[in-house]
Design brief:
The protein is an alpha/beta fold and 698 residues long. The protein contains 29 helices and 19 strands. The strands form four sheets. It has an eight-stranded mixed β-sheet, sandwiched between helices. Helix 4 crosses helix 5 and helix 25 packs across helix 28. It is globular, with a radius of gyration of 28 Å.
């Protein structure tokens, strides 16, 4: 037997115990151990039933990610499942924690399944650009019906044990996975219940076979939000084979589809995102042994949209919050908005009906900055003006307890300058949340010049605790995400001067995979925000400023780069915008021309990649993958494109260098010249991924 798998005999019941921490992943050793254990138990005359269970906090949570990209080692998971199905004695999967991916596929190969009440079951392969490759697309629909099965497989979202029981995915909910499964096994033996093989059970396919529209409607609903993605469509097609393809033939087709997706650039991008997210949370240059500071209460200054969203994030995780405002009116309004948001979520069934009251009970609204005194972490979320930030941090410094971590939610400003007004710069850092903060996954954790290592770990640890993906970045204007966004904004402005229209630029980027183009996004956010920021810095963007000067501030004024019908958020191209652009260019002596889609794409994306390279040169970001994670989770970069730096490697750095050099010359824009790092990597035939060699610590 494998060291990761043990076999015990409990009163004529063979118990296979998988013990491969932390998540009992299906490594070659685990697969081999299960295979050998099943065969041994089946051959033992003293064994009447077999229970498969896992030690630790979870059932098998999926494949062993360390084996990704390596030659497969026998036995394959399909071989293990075949051995289980061929067993002459009942095999019961005893599920706790999560049964995901290959773990659930293994359980589907068992004759019966039981689970504890808080277990989760799902097939999330689609999130890696794949489909279940060990029979999941054929067995799960036979367990739960093809309509519900296609939803589970296409979305990749797990379901809880009660829902699994309702749909027939499990046979019973038990108090304890091992003891409950053994008791269930005894009952099976006593009743001489026949073995159930999902591969032979088409009973739940009958209705959809008789009326294919039932499945077609379910598949269409499941795939409608997956524009541009290959895997969801492949998943839906594979599930459809349950209706017209013999089981063994369908398994072969499933395997072929799986191998095709594995080699697809989209799956490579999604696997990159998976690993990049796990690397991003590892903080470099922090000595072993450094521990985060304990945090029992958080104070948040500002109850507006951002501050309220941050407060909700902490309350969602059960962490008490002191929410501080300058006046009762602002505080009451902020608290009311939070309650309204939670009530709406409860009304949609997103949280239990009693949760809004429980979460509001964790929010203690106060007026006055002196109320930071009991907090272990203070987060400032006030106006994006340096003078205001400094005044607030001076007051925080005077009132916060010693050792409290002091964080600013600034999107752009110099945190070293903010820290300098305090007597404890070692406690000051940035925690840049993204709006809406209670929804968006990213948190840029900004390490200032004097930020203490334990303060930094406190911020990253707490961000993970509230469900965010923290990425540590350095201090510069706009940090990583907004710094690159500013470059894209400049190129958008330049494209309008060259001859493109807002709707043409937006169309190219939405076809690339963004949910919204930059000009529609600007209208949504409000064009006055960027306009005011440019005025503060003495910068002029001729067309963008002319749009604002014409009173076109975006959706709030029903007109910006687009016009909007009353009560509608749908952008409508406006001839008046084209006239305004033409007039501005004529005044500047510029001649506009027809711009092709490829030029739009290259000018909007390649300068961002170049800026990403500059960020890496300056060590503002530790890894190319960190930049990708920031853009994936903070700015809506399409997951199937993997992030800007991954996309650069896919295109080829030599190509990007040549196109940037071309645009720098033809547009007379020296700022578009490739950075030294980008040029060097291109000359070496290397990639951004090749930079990922330094050690990290988690």
């Amino acid at each position: 037997m494998s060291d990761a798998v043990k076999l015990a005999l409990v009163d004529h019941c063979a118990v296979i115990i998988i013990d491969a921490p932390p998540v009992n992943a299906l490594s070659a050793a685990v697969r081999r151990g299960i295979f050998e254990s099943v065969q041994a138990a089946n051959a033992d005359a003293a064994v009447r039933a077999i229970v498969m269970t896992c030690a630790g906090r979870t059932f098998i949570a999926g494949a062993d990610i360390t084996e990704f990209g390596k030659p497969p080692q026998p036995p394959a998971l399909n071989e293990v499942i075949t051995a289980i199905e061929s067993c002459s004695k009942p095999v019961i999967a005893a599920i706790h924690g999560t049964a995901l991916g290959g773990g659930l596929e293994l359980a589907l190969g068992c004759h019966f399944r039981v689970a504890v009440k808080d277990a989760k079951l799902g097939l999330p392969e689609v999130k890696l650009g794949l489909l279940p490759g060990a029979g999941g697309t054929q067995r799960l629909p036979r367990a739960v019906g093809p309509e519900f099965g296609v939803r589970m497989i296409v979305t990749g979202e797990p379901i809880g044990a009660p829902e699994a029981l309702e749909h027939g995915l499990i046979d019973e909910i038990v108090e304890s996975q091992a003891d409950g499964a053994i008791a269930f096994a005894r009952k099976l033996v006593a009743e001489q219940r026949p073995l159930l093989l999902l591969r032979n059970d088409d009973s739940k396919l009958v209705a959809a076979k008789a009326d294919r529209s039932l499945f077609a409607a379910a598949a269409a609903a499941a795939t409608k939000k997956n524009r541009g993605l290959n895997a969801p469509l492949a998943c839906a097609e594979a599930v459809s084979w349950t209706l017209d393809t013999p089981f063994d033939e369908a398994l072969k087709k499933e395997r072929e589809a799986f191998l095709k997706l594995v080699a697809d650039d989209q799956a490579k991008a999604q696997r990159h995102a998976f690993f990049a997210e796990r690397e991003a949370v590892k903080v470099r240059d922090v000595a072993d042994g450094v521990k985060p500071r304990p945090v029992g209460r958080v104070a948040i200054i500002g109850a507006g949209t951002m501050g309220g969203g941050i407060a909700m994030s902490f309350a969602n995780a059960g962490i008490p919050v002191t929410l501080i405002e300058t006046g009762e009116e602002q505080l009451t309004r902020g608290l009311g908005t939070m309650r309204k948001n939670w009530d709406a979520t409860a009304a949609r069934g997103g949280i239990p009906a009693d949760e809004p009251a429980k979460r509001m009970a964790l929010i203690d609204g106060k007026v006055g900055l002196e109320n930071v005194r009991d907090a272990d972490l203070v987060i400032e979320a006030v106006f994006e003006t340096m003078a205001i930030k400094k005044a607030v941090f001076t007051a925080i410094d005077a009132n916060a307890r010693p050792g409290a971590v002091l964080a600013t939610n600034t999107s752009y400003l110099d945190i070293n300058e903010i820290a300098a007004v305090t007597r404890r710069p070692q406690d000051v850092l940035g925690m840049h949340f993204f709006s809406p903060a209670n929804i968006m996954k990213l948190c840029e954790v900004v390490r200032a010049k004097q930020t203490a290592p334990d303060a930094l770990l406190t911020a990253t640890t707490l961000a993970k605790r509230i469900g965010k993906t923290p990425v540590v970045v350095g201090v510069c204007h706009g940090f990583v995400g907004n710094r690159m966004l500013a470059v894209r904004g400049l190129q958008g402005e330049a494209l309008l001067k060259s001859g493109a229209l807002p709707e043409e630029v937006d169309a190219v980027l939405t076809r690339f995979g963004f949910s919204m183009g930059p000009f529609a996004m600007g209208d949504l956010a409000g064009l006055d925000i960027g306009w005011r920021s440019r005025q503060d810095r003495g910068i002029r963007w001729d067309i963008a400023d002319a749009i604002c000067e014409a009173g076109r501030l975006g959706q709030k004024t029903s007109k910006g780069y687009y016009r909007y019908e009353p009560g509608s958020r749908a952008p409508i191209p406006d001839p008046k915008v084209e006239q305004l652009i033409d007039a501005t260019c004529k005044r500047l002596g510029l001649t506009r021309r027809t711009i092709g889609d490829q030029e739009v794409l290259e000018r909007m994306i390649y300068p961002m990649i170049n800026e990403g390279a500059r960020i890496l040169e300056e060590k503002i970001a530790a890894r190319p993958g960190d930049i990708d994670v920031i853009w994936l989770y903070g700015y809506g970069w399409p997951i199937h494109r993997g992030g800007p730096m991954f996309y650069a490697d896919l295109v080829g750095l030599r190509t990007i260098v040549e196109r940037l050099e071309f645009y720098a010359r033809s547009l007379n824009e020296p700022a578009l010249k490739p950075t030294a790092l980008l040029g060097r990597l291109a000359d070496e035939g290397a990639t951004f991924a090749s930079l990922n060699t330094e050690k990290t610590r988690g």
